[in-house]
Amino acid sequence: MKNHSLNQLLDERKLWRGQQLRPRMAASDSCCTGFKALDAALHSGGWPRSGSTELLGEYGIGELWLLMPTLRERSAARPICWLNPPYLPYPPALAQQGIAANRQLLVRPKNVNDQLWAAEELLRSGAYAAVLTWFAKTNLNDRQLRRLHIAALEGECWHLHFRPAALAQQISPAPLRLQLHTAKQALDIQIMKQQGGHAGQQLQLARPAALYLQQSPASNWPVYTTAPASNLPVQRQLKGKISLLNASILNTPARPAKQLDSVSKEQAH
């Protein structure tokens, strides 16, 4: 094993001094997560208001549900920004959670350099309460991560950095790092690092049933072995059903099938 001097370890930020820890963060430096168990596990009593927070795990396991209470509260004061999300945010679902479409910005730079530049500018601008980032290059170096964290501090912005679980052991300047795992109708959370407090706490938060698809499996779907006869009465019946369906979507009065036939004949002539 290669020997390192104490000063070298401190310079490389691989070792911290115990007296540098604050006894407890001020109440104004954090806000409630919306989950009592998570607030109790966090030394600050909630999410930090600025700086980088890393969420490590697979995408689409409930990580956004975990953030919704705080994002809803913060978006009322300043908008939030999505930078290079793996899936396109769905405005109706976010509106149902209390985050209006006009309080959000979606940015999708083409390459990693543009993503880093845009993220730093957005975080430092002071215009956004939170910036959520996913980078094409997940294994960013210490200098890149530190620039993002400092930019978030300067702009008083909450930087939510989503990263793969494989990078949990990588050194990061983010004061708060959480590792997320999916469980049966729940989300497992492990605190990997938190400023001013101990790490290693594990907890499980039950997710609401509304987040799960309440649909029977495909094996139970009906299967038709014979196709319906393609005679004229069936075609007219289908036209009538289609016109009623369109009327319900467009909120317009439905026309009878015979009237639709006569209109199509007139247009043909």
From TrEMBL:
Matches recorded under InterPro entries: ImuA_translesion
This protein's name: Translesion DNA synthesis-associated protein ImuA
Organism, as annotated: Zhongshania aquimaris
Biological classification of the source: Bacteria, Pseudomonadati, Pseudomonadota, Gammaproteobacteria, Cellvibrionales
